[in-house]
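Technical annex B. To support the medicinal chemistry partners, we prepared a structural model of the target in complex with zinc ion, based solely on the information shown next.
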Amino acid sequence: MINRREFVYSCGALVAAAHLPESPPVFYDLVLRGGQVIDPSMHLNGVRDVAVSHGRIVAVERHITGDAAAIINAHGKLVVPGLIDIHTHTTTTPQGPELVLQDGVTGWIDAGTQGADHIVDAIAIARSSPQQGRVLINIGRAGIIAEGDTMDLKRADVDAARAAIAKDRDYIVGIKARLSRDVAGVNDFEVLRRAQEAAAPFGLPVMIHMGQTISPLEKLFPLLKSGDIVTHMFAPPPNSLIDESGHIRLEVMAARRRGVWFDVGNGQNGHMRWDIVAAMMKAGFWPDTFSTDWNPNSRQTGVIDLPNCMSKLFGYGMSLDQAIARGTWKASRIFQVFRNRGTLNVGAPADIALLELRKGHFEFLDNFHNTVIGTQRLFPAGTVLAGKWIPRTEQG
Ligand SMILES: [Zn+2]
């Protein structure tokens, strides 16, 4: 493949041969200099310069010569593809997209904040988002509500969901079914069945929020199809992915084999407990993606930001490259809208996260007030969105 510089040089040679003035030196919009570039989509981990022009990656090389309108000194920092968070509640505030952009998140999915009744509010925020943002429609037409989204089964309204999807097909990229006992109660199976019924004509994935369901997984999981997503995969019993003797349940293994994705969905309440994390990591059942389950309070909870969530499995055997992969290219495969993201390949849109890997003594929280101590944590240090440098304004 020819990169922009080689292309310009070869044009320059042709021009010189024709006795015309020499071509001017290459000029980039932005160069990130000397960072440790980690791009698992290309099996790359090394010190590189990254050049950007016209909103695209134009070169990733050891030494990029030529000038640039802006140069970011990335020495000592990690340069990775823009992060993709597939389970957020970014649309709960109009500032949501800007706030997660500060964390290096250049693509987000709002997972079921709204149902058919108010989905237009969520879509309005997605439309005005600086980065790519899309929504999953809650099968409960009132969205997330305190009394439980689908505790009243009438709220799991297939026709209402289908009508909303048909109207905003570009922005509604899937359906969310929250199945915990305090959300769906005894309706869990029927709610999931209706979510699939609503999704079917559009070929959309369903994301289930699992953990503490009333129905056992052997009843629920056969309803999951290839491309669906299970979030809150580290939820403790009742009905965890792993049984009391430390074995991943057969229906869970079968679901992964047929192409169901498994996502962390960190969250705040009831979704993640360190002993379950330890047992599942030991059993070799690792997440496909990290996600925060972000909301405007996340800075004050154990979530903090996506880089923090991505740091939580270092102590359970996950390498830095494996963590970056799950926040970038692996996440990019799940929703079509991100298919050309999650990579620093030349030609890709220039969405980049600058991170800092700090060494020290870091406390990582689960959702049950349990802390594990880690020796490394990723911190956001700046973002490039569509080729434009967005400095981090918060300290921390
Ligand atoms: Zn959520």
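Notes passed to the chemistry partners:
Residues 1-18 have pLDDT under 50 and may be disordered.
Residues 116 and 141 are 5 Å apart (CA to CA).
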